[in-house]
Amino acid sequence: MDFQCLNRSVWKEALSSYSARIVSLNKPQLVSLDDFYCNQLPALIRQRNPNPYITTSELSKLMQWKLTRGKWRPRLLDFVSSLDEALVKSASQKAFQSLPDISKAISELTVLKGVGPATASALLAAYAPDVAPFMSDEAMVAALGNSKDYTLKQYLVFADKLQNKARELSVEGDSYTPSDVERALWSSAVGTKLLDSLPNSEPKVNTKRKRKQ
User: Fold this and answer.
1) pLDDT band at residue 199, thresholds of 50, 70 and 90?
2) Cβ atoms 55, 89 nearer than 8 A
3) Of these four, 7, 28, 97, 125, which has the most CB atoms within 10 Å of its CB?
4) Would you say which domain of life the source belongs to (predicted)?
5) Domains of the chain: total
6) Model pTM greater than 0.85?
7) Whole domain around residue 113: which residue ranges?
8) Is residue 1 part of a domain?
């Protein structure tokens, strides 16, 4: 799906297919991890008023979700899982209190070992999906043309683009958050990969049959 696409039905279809795309990846635990990230974690964070925060075990599970949905990098999980509980609580409280200043919020979180702008963005997106989108490779490629630069500066450009797209799509009764836009872009990219993999396998099968004959 082209990021510049103005057809709202295309965006709506991509977003509504998100859960099915998660299932289609056939990755162990991804369905339950995605349910935790999308549904359980936001509620857990928000109920800790007046100063919301995240625990080390929750941050570890968020990292599992991020790595399972994307590229698996076990060292990051090791770093995050061994973080001091008080440090995680303090950093996340400061980050949430910094919003809607995304730059400051990301900076508060990246003091934690193993937490870069992408992981920090995932945490902010869980707490404030209307402000901060997750910095996924698929959405980065769609919005910016590449996913190589994981800096704060690049994230701010990315977030601004998705915020603008969410506003553009939120008309005629439809309401989109920057996180909705990210999920739609991710879903579309995964769907395209699935479709591309189907035709590629058929010629191989046909070629083998011809050789046998």
Assistant:
1) low
2) yes
3) 125
4) Eukaryota
5) 1
6) yes
7) 8-204
8) no
